[in-house]
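user: can you give me the structure for this one chain? C-alpha cells are fine.
assistant: on it. calling the predictor now.
[tool input]
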Amino acid sequence: MTTPLVFDASFEGAPGLPQAFGDGITRVTAANPSPLTFRGTNSYIVESQGQAAIIDPGPIDAAHEAALADALGRNRLAAILVTHTHKDHAPLAARLSQRFGAPVIGCAPHRLARPYRPGDPDVDAISDLNYAPERILADGDRVDVGEAVLTALETPGHTDNHLAFRLDTPRGPAIFTGDVVMAWSTTVVIPPEGSMAAYFSSIERLKAENALVFHPGHGAPVRDPAGYLDGLRAHRQAREASALAALRAQDGPARLQDLLATVYPGLDPKLLIAAGHSLLAHLEHLEEQGLARRIAQDASALWTAGASPP
C-alpha cells in the first residue's frame, strides 16, 4: 500500500540562524523566500575534525555569506559542494571559494536534457552560467571532510546535472537532496533542462539508498524517506494519468494551457507557470512512451493522445 503523500509546511529556525541536526550537520537558510523556494534556500555545513564542507552555498547575498562564515566557526572550509546550477543554489560558491581558498566541487555546469524548441521556457535565465567547478563529480565519487565522507549520487530530473550527496552517519545515511526532493512541495520539472523520465528514475535511485533522513534544498528534513518517495512517485503517476485522460477527453488536439485547469484543479494562481512547466514534462514523458503526440514544433504546439505515425 502506498504511503499517502503529506507535505510538511513546518520549518524551525529563521534565515541566517544556524540550525544543528547532529552528526556534524548545520543548516543555514538564505533570506530568499518565494512561492518556489518556500522559506528560502537551505545551505548545509558538514563538519568533522576541524574541517567543513558547505553544500549549496546559495544566492549571492552578503547577509547569507556572513551567516555561513559565522557558522563555520574555527573549522577550515575544505570544499564547496553544489547540487545543481540554479541561481538560488550555486552563485555564492565562487565568492566563498575566493574568500576561503576552498575548491568548488559538485555538479557539471549548466546543460540541457534536450535541445531548445520554439516556445520553451528560457531555463538559461534561471541558471548560474558562470558556475565553474574545479572538480565535477560522477555517481559514486566521494569527498572526504575530516572523517566524514560525502558521496555523490546522480539524480537528474529537476535539472539534467543534478546531484545529491550522501553522508554516512552512525545512525544511517543522511542525504542532501537539493531540489530533487523537498518536504513542503513537489519538485518542478522544467524542460528542456529537466526530464520527467529522469525524475522518476531518480526517485528509484534515492529509494535504493535506504536513507535515514533527507535534508532538502528547501523546507524541513524528511524523516520517512522511503514512504515519502513512494508518495512522490504515486503523486506524479496520478498527475500523468490525469494528463493522459485529459488528452483523450479532448475533441481534437489541445494546447498545454487548455489542459492545465483539468490536470491541476484549484491550483494557486502563483504556481500556474510552474505547473505548466511540469505538465509539459509529463506530456513529453507520455510522448516518450508512445501515449501522446506533439503536433508541430512551434510555440503554439498542440498535443493529442496516441503515438506519432510511423
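assistant: here you go. The chain is about 25% helix and 25% strand. The chain has two domains: 19-232, 238-305.
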